[in-house]
Design goal:
The chain is of the alpha/beta class. The protein folds into two domains: 6-152 and 292-367, Rossmann fold, CATH 3.40.50; 155-284 and 370-397, 3-Layer(aba) Sandwich (Rossmann fold). It has helices at residues 6-10, 40-59, 80-92, 104-120, 154-166, 182-198, 219-227, 239-251, 268-272, 294-306, 316-331, 337-344; strands spanning 26-33, 68-75, 97-100, 127-130, 147-149, 173-179, 203-210, 232-235, 258-260, 280-284, 348-350, 356-359, 366-367, 370-376, 390-397. It has a seven-stranded mixed β-sheet, sandwiched between helices. Helix 2 (40-59) packs across helix 11 (316-331) and helix 3 packs parallel to helix 4 (104-120). The termini are far apart.
Length: 413
């Protein structure tokens, strides 16, 4: 591939971003995620992607009359309690936009706190830009006007995964395992329900949860999986827990497919290497191999030039920033978050990494294409972790679960 500059990557943005002005202010976005502890790698790489996405928008002219988007980092140590402290710090600093994604437990705490804050402080409201926390409750019973989810929720992803599983006649037994918190429980519930509906002949031979971020040795879990006779494993594990579980399962002799949500990048791809080939399957949005477009390839190349050890592992982050910029421009203000929110809901947008995007009005769940990817070293344009291994899409569900029902009863200001 020819060497591509970042200037080329931002050219398409100029159609939706206003021209620069001599005097500009920053539109600040608080990034509240783990920057220390066992999930620091995931949080740090996510921060770099947010910063780079903002930089692309800013180089294309910023928003409104040349205002810049600025990402302000807050370390929540993956703790809901610490997240609420950092949320208040961000609000006290005048920040109106909150971005978070790692841990649905944190997201549940934040969305409740933001809803309460906005009801009590109508002149100082904030928006919650959820880029990765996929507990279905966040856009169902716990939905609120201030929360927007840019990732497909756990049910949407499980729907796509179980479609693939249902077509595999070789799968007769499945073991479900995950982290013991809201997301892990949601994955298990969806897997049980959808497998029973689509393949009632499949036996669930294991269904358990383990403490999040605290298991040092997954050998006991791996041995149970192998001894169960399972043909496949389903897990929503992420970060160090995904790596620990997956490596242990494979090393203990499991040879079937491991269906996952987050088994890539942040050191995970390199650590699995050859051992993950033919085994790891990951459900996610966005096309990397092959790149969805020349523009996508340009952005990825420019990101790798700036962050040689980084990965564009959460492409939806770029959608967050582009759609936020578009909403601010259409609202004509960054200060009135109610106007910005009304521009976001119902918004249709061309995704950076391919496909159409639509922020569904009824529950603020982004509807988009979902792909099942395989961990491989074949046909790789962009690898992860400089390992030679990456993800190649094996199947695609277009505008996945666009008509999925919701229990959301949203109250609008």
């Amino acid at each position: 591939m020819k060497k591509i500059t970042k200037l080329g990557a931002v050219s398409a943005l100029s159609l939706i971003i206003g021209a620069s002005a001599a005097f500009a202010e920053n539109v600040r976005v608080a990034f509240i995620d783990p920057l220390s502890g066992p999930f620091a790698g995931t949080g740090t790489n996510g921060l770099h992607q947010f910063e780079f996405a903002a930089e692309l928008v800013n180089e294309a002219g910023g928003v409104l009359d040349g205002d810049k988007i600025e990402i302000v980092a807050f370390d929540n140590k993956i703790s809901p309690k610490e997240s609420l402290i950092q949320l208040q710090v961000a609000i006290d600093q005048g920040i109106r936009y909150i971005a978070q994604g790692n841990s649905s437990g944190v997201a549940n705490a934040l969305t409740e706190a933001i809803d309460k804050h906005n009801r009590r402080n109508p002149d100082n409201r904030v928006l919650f830009l959820n880029y990765s926390a996929v507990d279905p409750a966040l856009t169902n019973d716990k939905c609120n006007f201030w929360h927007f989810r840019f990732d497909a929720n756990a049910d949407i992803k499980m729907d796509a995964l179980t479609d693939v599983i249902a077509k595999d006649d070789g799968i007769k037994k499945i073991y479900i395992i995950g982290q013991d918190y809201s997301f892990g429980k949601a994955v298990a519930a969806a897997a049980n329900s959808m497998i029973a509906e689509k393949r009632p002949d499949i036996e669930i031979v294991g269904d358990e949860l383990h403490p999040i971020g605290k298991v040092k040795d997954f050998t006991p879990y791996a041995r149970k999986i192998v001894s169960s006779g399972a043909d496949a494993v389903i897990t929503g594990n992420w970060g160090a827990d995904m790596l620990g579980l997956g490596k242990s399962v494979i090393e203990n002799g499991f040879e079937g497919p491991i269906y996952t949500y987050y088994a890539a990048a942040d050191g995970i791809t390199a650590a699995f290497g050859e051992s993950g080939k033919g085994s790891l399957r990951l459900v996610a949005e966005g096309l990397i191999n092959p790149p969805a477009s020349e523009r996508a390839a340009e952005i990825y190349s420019a990101f790798k030039e700036k962050y040689p050890d980084g990965n564009v592992s959460q492409g939806r982050i770029f959608n967050v920033i582009e759609m936020l910029a578009k909403a601010i421009n259409q609202a004509g203000t960054a200060d009135d978050v109610v106007k910005v929110a009304y521009e976001l809901e119902g918004m249709e947008h061309d995704g950076v990494w391919g496909g159409k995007l639509k922020m569904r009005e009824v529950d603020h769940q982004l509807i988009q294409d979902v792909h099942i990817h395989a961990h491989t070293d074949e046909n790789i344009t962009f690898d992860y972790d400089n390992s030679g291994f990456g993800l190649v899409a094996e199947s695609t569900v277009t505008m996945a679960s666009a008509d999925i029902p919701t229990t959301c009863e949203m109250k609008r200001p």
